[in-house]
Protein backbone atom coordinates (compact mmCIF):
# COMPACT_ATOMS: atom_id res chain seq x y z
CA UNK A 1 0.00 0.00 0.00
CA UNK A 2 1.37 3.40 -0.98
CA UNK A 3 1.75 5.70 2.02
CA UNK A 4 3.33 8.72 0.33
CA UNK A 5 3.78 9.63 -3.32
CA UNK A 6 5.73 12.70 -4.39
CA UNK A 7 5.65 14.01 -7.94
CA UNK A 8 8.14 16.40 -9.48
CA UNK A 9 9.12 18.20 -6.29
CA UNK A 10 11.36 21.24 -6.55
CA UNK A 11 12.47 23.40 -3.64
CA UNK A 12 14.01 26.83 -4.16
CA UNK A 13 15.16 29.43 -1.68
CA UNK A 14 15.79 32.51 -3.79
CA UNK A 15 18.34 31.55 -6.45
CA UNK A 16 19.33 28.38 -4.58
CA UNK A 17 17.80 25.05 -5.65
CA UNK A 18 17.85 22.33 -2.99
CA UNK A 19 16.35 19.66 -5.21
CA UNK A 20 14.66 19.65 -8.59
CA UNK A 21 12.03 17.37 -10.16
CA UNK A 22 12.23 14.82 -7.33
CA UNK A 23 9.70 11.97 -7.48
CA UNK A 24 9.34 8.93 -5.23
CA UNK A 25 6.87 6.51 -3.69
CA UNK A 26 7.00 5.33 -0.08
CA UNK A 27 5.17 2.11 0.79
CA UNK A 28 3.63 1.00 4.08
CA UNK A 29 5.77 -1.47 6.02
CA UNK A 30 9.05 -0.14 4.63
CA UNK A 31 11.93 1.96 5.97
CA UNK A 32 13.46 4.70 3.83
CA UNK A 33 16.59 6.80 4.28
CA UNK A 34 17.05 10.34 3.01
CA UNK A 35 20.79 10.94 2.69
CA UNK A 36 23.06 13.61 1.31
CA UNK A 37 25.60 16.22 2.39
CA UNK A 38 24.73 18.95 4.86
CA UNK A 39 22.57 21.55 3.16
CA UNK A 40 21.15 19.13 0.59
CA UNK A 41 17.65 19.52 2.01
CA UNK A 42 16.98 16.31 3.95
CA UNK A 43 15.18 18.03 6.82
CA UNK A 44 13.42 20.34 4.37
CA UNK A 45 12.07 17.33 2.48
CA UNK A 46 10.82 15.78 5.72
CA UNK A 47 9.07 19.06 6.53
CA UNK A 48 7.45 19.07 3.09
CA UNK A 49 6.18 15.52 3.58
CA UNK A 50 4.83 16.54 7.00
CA UNK A 51 3.06 19.56 5.53
CA UNK A 52 4.97 22.10 7.61
CA UNK A 53 6.20 23.78 4.43
CA UNK A 54 5.21 23.54 0.77
CA UNK A 55 7.60 22.71 -2.08
CA UNK A 56 8.14 25.38 -4.69
CA UNK A 57 6.57 23.09 -7.30
CA UNK A 58 5.21 19.55 -7.35
CA UNK A 59 2.71 17.61 -5.28
CA UNK A 60 2.60 15.14 -2.40
CA UNK A 61 -0.13 12.55 -1.92
CA UNK A 62 -1.06 10.57 1.22
CA UNK A 63 -2.85 7.26 0.60
CA UNK A 64 -3.88 8.50 -2.83
CA UNK A 65 -5.08 11.91 -1.67
CA UNK A 66 -3.31 15.19 -2.33
CA UNK A 67 -1.88 16.95 0.70
CA UNK A 68 -4.41 19.72 1.45
CA UNK A 69 -3.47 23.40 1.39
CA UNK A 70 -5.91 24.08 4.22
CA UNK A 71 -3.84 24.53 7.39
CA UNK A 72 -6.52 23.11 9.67
CA UNK A 73 -6.81 19.95 7.58
CA UNK A 74 -3.01 19.61 7.49
CA UNK A 75 -2.87 19.80 11.28
CA UNK A 76 -5.54 17.11 11.50
CA UNK A 77 -3.59 14.83 9.15
CA UNK A 78 -0.41 15.33 11.17
CA UNK A 79 -2.20 14.59 14.43
CA UNK A 80 -3.93 11.46 13.19
CA UNK A 81 -1.52 9.96 10.66
CA UNK A 82 2.05 11.19 11.19
CA UNK A 83 4.43 10.44 14.04
CA UNK A 84 7.59 12.48 14.50
CA UNK A 85 11.02 11.86 15.94
CA UNK A 86 12.76 15.22 15.73
CA UNK A 87 16.43 16.00 16.16
CA UNK A 88 15.57 18.20 19.14
CA UNK A 89 13.08 15.58 20.46
CA UNK A 90 10.18 18.11 20.41
CA UNK A 91 9.45 17.59 24.10
CA UNK A 92 7.72 20.09 26.36
CA UNK A 93 10.73 21.12 28.45
CA UNK A 94 8.91 22.63 31.42
CA UNK A 95 6.65 19.64 31.91
CA UNK A 96 6.81 16.03 33.12
CA UNK A 97 7.33 12.70 31.41
CA UNK A 98 3.64 11.92 31.93
CA UNK A 99 2.49 15.20 30.40
CA UNK A 100 4.64 14.64 27.33
CA UNK A 101 3.24 11.16 26.82
CA UNK A 102 -0.33 12.41 27.19
CA UNK A 103 0.14 15.31 24.77
CA UNK A 104 1.47 13.04 22.04
CA UNK A 105 -1.57 10.76 22.09
CA UNK A 106 -4.26 13.44 22.00
CA UNK A 107 -5.46 14.16 18.47
CA UNK A 108 -8.39 16.30 19.63
CA UNK A 109 -9.97 17.73 22.77
CA UNK A 110 -12.20 14.65 22.82
CA UNK A 111 -9.33 12.13 22.91
CA UNK A 112 -9.25 9.86 25.92
CA UNK A 113 -6.33 10.04 28.30
CA UNK A 114 -3.81 7.21 28.23
CA UNK A 115 -3.69 5.13 31.39
CA UNK A 116 -0.64 5.34 33.62
CA UNK A 117 -0.13 1.60 33.18
CA UNK A 118 0.13 1.98 29.40
CA UNK A 119 2.56 4.86 29.79
CA UNK A 120 4.73 2.82 32.15
CA UNK A 121 4.68 -0.09 29.69
CA UNK A 122 5.84 2.19 26.88
CA UNK A 123 8.69 3.52 29.03
CA UNK A 124 9.71 -0.03 29.94
CA UNK A 125 9.89 -1.00 26.25
CA UNK A 126 12.50 1.69 25.68
CA UNK A 127 14.34 0.87 28.93
CA UNK A 128 13.39 4.08 30.70
CA UNK A 129 13.00 3.40 34.40
CA UNK A 130 11.57 6.80 35.33
CA UNK A 131 8.70 7.95 37.53
CA UNK A 132 6.00 9.51 35.37
CA UNK A 133 6.29 12.75 37.35
CA UNK A 134 9.98 13.17 36.41
CA UNK A 135 10.76 16.62 34.98
CA UNK A 136 11.85 16.45 31.35
CA UNK A 137 14.43 19.18 31.98
CA UNK A 138 16.67 16.80 33.97
CA UNK A 139 16.76 14.03 31.35
CA UNK A 140 19.90 13.24 29.35
CA UNK A 141 19.93 13.38 25.56
CA UNK A 142 19.58 9.61 25.27
CA UNK A 143 16.70 9.56 27.75
CA UNK A 144 14.90 12.29 25.83
CA UNK A 145 15.30 10.40 22.59
CA UNK A 146 13.86 7.24 24.14
CA UNK A 147 10.99 9.23 25.65
CA UNK A 148 10.20 10.49 22.16
CA UNK A 149 10.13 6.88 20.93
CA UNK A 150 7.86 5.91 23.85
CA UNK A 151 5.36 8.52 22.62
CA UNK A 152 5.28 6.78 19.25
CA UNK A 153 4.79 3.40 20.91
CA UNK A 154 1.69 4.67 22.71
CA UNK A 155 -0.03 5.64 19.48
CA UNK A 156 1.75 4.27 16.37
CA UNK A 157 1.03 6.25 13.21
CA UNK A 158 0.87 5.08 9.57
CA UNK A 159 3.75 7.42 8.69
CA UNK A 160 6.75 8.07 10.94
CA UNK A 161 9.23 10.83 10.05
CA UNK A 162 12.56 10.86 11.90
CA UNK A 163 15.15 13.64 11.55
CA UNK A 164 18.64 12.37 12.44
CA UNK A 165 17.21 9.94 15.02
CA UNK A 166 20.65 8.56 15.94
CA UNK A 167 22.64 11.79 15.67
CA UNK A 168 23.03 12.52 19.40
CA UNK A 169 23.39 8.92 20.59
CA UNK A 170 26.22 6.48 21.21
CA UNK A 171 26.29 3.38 19.02
CA UNK A 172 24.45 1.16 21.48
CA UNK A 173 21.54 3.57 21.91
CA UNK A 174 21.57 4.40 18.19
CA UNK A 175 21.17 0.73 17.30
CA UNK A 176 18.36 0.46 19.82
CA UNK A 177 16.51 3.37 18.18
CA UNK A 178 16.98 1.79 14.75
CA UNK A 179 15.54 -1.42 16.15
CA UNK A 180 12.43 0.45 17.26
CA UNK A 181 12.09 2.05 13.83
CA UNK A 182 12.32 -1.37 12.20
CA UNK A 183 9.64 -2.69 14.56
CA UNK A 184 7.34 0.16 13.53
CA UNK A 185 7.88 -0.77 9.88
CA UNK A 186 7.26 -4.47 10.54
CA UNK A 187 3.98 -3.48 12.21
CA UNK A 188 2.93 -1.70 9.00
CA UNK A 189 4.08 1.90 9.38
CA UNK A 190 6.03 3.69 6.68
CA UNK A 191 9.23 4.99 8.31
CA UNK A 192 11.33 7.75 6.73
CA UNK A 193 14.69 8.74 8.23
CA UNK A 194 16.80 11.76 7.33
CA UNK A 195 20.27 10.65 8.33
CA UNK A 196 24.05 10.89 8.01
CA UNK A 197 24.54 7.59 9.86
CA UNK A 198 25.82 4.77 7.57
CA UNK A 199 24.36 2.11 9.86
CA UNK A 200 20.99 3.83 9.83
CA UNK A 201 21.13 3.76 6.03
CA UNK A 202 21.96 0.04 6.10
CA UNK A 203 18.94 -0.62 8.29
CA UNK A 204 16.59 0.81 5.66
CA UNK A 205 14.98 -0.92 2.70
CA UNK A 206 15.64 1.91 0.25
CA UNK A 207 17.53 5.18 0.13
CA UNK A 208 17.01 8.50 -1.60
CA UNK A 209 20.28 10.34 -2.09
CA UNK A 210 19.78 14.08 -2.30
CA UNK A 211 22.29 15.85 -4.47
CA UNK A 212 21.99 19.42 -5.64
CA UNK A 213 19.87 19.88 -7.63
CA UNK A 214 18.35 16.39 -8.22
CA UNK A 215 17.73 13.25 -6.20
CA UNK A 216 18.68 9.72 -7.18
CA UNK A 217 17.35 6.50 -5.82
CA UNK A 218 18.77 3.00 -5.44
CA UNK A 219 17.67 -0.23 -3.84
CA UNK A 220 19.54 -1.57 -0.80
CA UNK A 221 19.32 -5.37 -0.71
CA UNK A 222 19.24 -6.98 1.73
CA UNK A 223 18.29 -4.59 4.49
CA UNK A 224 20.23 -5.02 7.70
CA UNK A 225 17.82 -5.99 10.45
CA UNK A 226 18.33 -5.09 14.08
CA UNK A 227 17.00 -7.25 16.93
UniProtKB/TrEMBL annotation:
InterPro entries: AAA+_ATPase (IPR003593), ABC_transporter-like_ATP-bd (IPR003439), ABC_transporter-like_CS (IPR017871), ABC_transpr_LolD-like (IPR015854), P-loop_NTPase (IPR027417). Residues 4-227 form the ABC transporter domain. One of its GO terms (biological process) is cell division. PROSITE patterns: ABC_TRANSPORTER_1, ABC_TRANSPORTER_2. SMART domains: AAA (SM00382). The keyword Nucleotide-binding applies. One of its GO terms (molecular function) is transmembrane transporter activity. Coiled coil: none annotated. Keywords: ATP-binding, Cell cycle, Cell division, Nucleotide-binding. Pfam families: ABC_tran (PF00005). One of its GO terms (cellular component) is plasma membrane. It comes from the Bacteria. PANTHER family: ABC TRANSPORTER ABCH.1 (PTHR24220:SF86), IMPORT ATP-BINDING PROTEIN (PTHR24220). This is Cell division ATP-binding protein FtsE. It comes from Trueperella bialowiezensis. The gene is ftsE_1.
